[in-house]
Design a protein that fits this description.
The protein is an alpha/beta fold. The chain contains eight helices and 17 strands. The chain has two domains: 77 residues, no CATH class; 157 residues, 3 Solenoid (UDP N-Acetylglucosamine Acyltransferase, domain 1), CATH 2.160.10. 23% of the residues lie in helices and 15% in strands. A six-stranded parallel β-sheet has the order 1-4-7-10-13-16, with no helix packed on it. The chain has a six-stranded parallel β-sheet with strand order 2-5-8-11-14-17.
Length: 278
């Protein structure tokens, strides 16, 4: 491993960690965009840009970039880097040293915090399940309404609906009951059954809808008689009546035809199966 001599001159005590994981969350000053225009070979933030910036801060080029680029912008981030509040986030007093025109910092999250990367569908699903279960997060799905969890309100508004203890429900849920003119409800039908699932804001469900181990994003419409299991339905999609989804991923603003039966399938955003059938 190569270590810059200028780094050792500035920091005589250096601790090297091998167990830290990059959360892929980065904050950059605006002048970094100017830098990228001059460095077309940089294609990755993690592999190219960050190592370059870390090395740049200890070179003579740092002052050149500072004189040429930093003066073009009003940068609250630079001003904030000299405040006392920084010590709350583990940045030592040397941050106030203005001799270095370019400085790179990393925030190491305490082990008590929940931090995860949603860079795959499986990871995104697991994060939602962790959040709903409250196993690794202080959030409790049955907390008061002030915490933006509307399970209790939905349960009070629709007493015939069934919500499991690992559910999170967004504001404005509408559940349509079976009209009297439609005749008796099918045997074993329930108004709504939700188990171990996340329901977004402004969703509308028809009667006899069953949802388990799924993520339903904002503004989704699921019509009567649908069964959703271990699936993700993105914002604004419409699942027509008597459809069944299992282990599937539905993109945003998709319209599924009535009676659709999907298993291990992915539907791209904006797809309208009803129009395709016509």
């Amino acid at each position: 491993m190569l270590v810059c001599v200028a780094l050792l001159r500035s920091f005589q005590n250096v601790t090297i960690h091998t167990k830290l994981r990059d959360a892929h969350l980065y904050l950059f000053a605006h002048w970094v965009l100017d830098l990228l225009e001059t460095k077309p070979s940089i294609s990755s933030i993690q592999s190219d840009l960050l190592p370059y910036l870390v090395k740049l801060q200890f070179t003579k080029s740092a002052k050149e970039w500072a004189d040429r680029s930093l003066s073009k912008y009003e940068q609250p981030a630079i001003v904030m880097s000299h405040t006392r509040e920084e010590t709350q986030y583990g940045i030592e007093d040397y941050a106030a040293n203005k001799r270095d025109p370019i400085r790179c910092y990393v925030y190491v999250a305490p082990e008590t915090l929940y931090c995860a990367r949603a860079n795959t569908v499986a990871a995104y699903t697991q994060i939602n399940r962790d959040f709903a279960a409250g196993t690794v997060y202080t959030y409790n799905p049955w907390t008061p309404l002030t915490a933006d969890n509307w399970v209790k309100k939905a349960q009070d508004q629709y007493p015939k609906a069934q919500f499991g203890d690992r559910c999170v429900v967004g504001e404005g849920l509408i559940i349509e009951e079976l009209a009297a003119s439609a005749g008796p409800a099918p045997k074993g039908a329930v108004l709504l059954s939700v188990k171990r699932s996340i329901i977004g804001k402004g969703c509308r469900f028809g009667p006899d809808v069953k949802i388990a181990d799924s993520i339903i994003m904002d503004g989704v419409v699921i019509e009567a008689g649908c069964t959703i299991q271990n699936s993700i339905i993105a914002t604004g999609s419409v699942i027509k009546a008597k459809s069944t989804l299992k282990d599937s991923r539905i993109g945003a603003h998709v319209v599924l035809a009535p009676g659709s039966d999907l298993k291990n399938e992915s539907i791209a955003s904006g797809t309208d199966e009803e129009e395709e059938e016509n």
